Structure prediction request, 459 residues.
Amino acid sequence: MKLWSGRFDKNTDQLVDELNASITFDQRLFREDITGSMAHAKMLGKQGIIAVEESEKIIEGLKGILEDMEAGKIPFLISDEDIHMCVEAELTRRIGDTGKRLHTARSRNDQVALDFRMYMKNQVLEIRALLLPLIEVLVKMAENNLDTIMPAYTHLQRAQPSTFAHYMMSYANMLKRDVLRLEDCYERMDEMPLGCGALTGTTYPIDRQFVAEQLGFARVCENSLDGVSDRDYCVEILSALSIIMMHLSRFSEEIIMWCSWEFKFIELDDAYSTGSSIMPQKKNPDIAELVRGKTGRVYGSLMGFLTIMKALPLAYNKDMQEDKEQVFDAVDTVKACLPVFTAMIDTMTLNKENMRNAASRGFINATDCADYMVKKGLPFRDAYTVVGKLVNYCINNGKTLESLSMDEYKSFSDIFEDDVYHAIDLETCVAMRLSQGGPSKESVQAQIASIKKFLAEKE
Prediction:
């Protein structure tokens, strides 16, 4: 018999039971459900809503159920409908009618809101913990490659000289923001909804603050309608996870290009590559490609969730049962990607010579040549035009800015002197980019120090 069967004259159709049940996926909330129920039972006894002896008996029964569920001894059945009814029915089987008192002064609406928030608080902390090692790897690679010159790109065209360290710190800063976003989400979701009841609270003299303290919440939800219907924190988390995956996907795209024969800037470790079933020469960056592909999966969860919530009136609606699978899948996907991605980056080998050779082609020191002229007194727009003509001349004659003779330089402007060769040297180009955030060694070392300070604060 269903716990809510009193109002009905006949049983629901089997197909309805199968469609209506959420136990197949919300079973993962059993720890949160039981922990929340124990806190609720303790409060009921403290407040005299039920006898203290009954409260203690319920708590002991719940402890036993938790142990057995963790040991896999209790099956999750469609007939139980959801994890809440599963636990309550099992409790009643074990301790009799006293178990029926557990649901006093609460509803499944505020109960599931509690379980989900508790679960997601833990997941946010776990994902945050997975981001930090990746940032540490990027810092380590930056420290080891302060002088590794490579081209930086715009429009996938070689643009200006940079260093591999500068590249790594760009991603470290992206991931730093991801950590901060998760912490921001955590702070806002740290409100306890239990006590909101089905939607308008309860007539029992409950102590919500006591339960919040028992469960480690910073505060309680201030409005009962909002408390049971709020899923903003899920949207925020899915958004934060989508941004994490966007960053990993962008990085993956670069890894995929860099390990191709066309670039050959890096070599992925064999443990994080795969081969072809037909082409024996292939070494494929499948991990990076999978991360790039799974990004769309997480985006889909965000868009699906927003679509579910977009027109729901207050308060709880059964549509909201569809919230969990979207979030669970996104969380599982990000948690699966981060450790493997971190190991892939940590074990890859750099081909510094190829990076340096690529930087020596494509006229990526053209801006520095123009800046040289500006420092000699020529307006930047005029210098830009002169260097543009120089580049065109080089292209038509198979030369580079470094290989032009002084006579050739002078034919374009008398400003040029022998010191131009030092000004356009790639090492000089990088070293002179001393502006905060740039690729010079001093600037990147400051960026590394900033991220290290951030990591130290998160320990």
Observations:
- The beta strands are 149-154, 157-163, 191-192, 219-220, 266-267, 349-350.
- The longest strand covers residues 157-163.
- Residues 108-143 form the longest helix (36 residues).
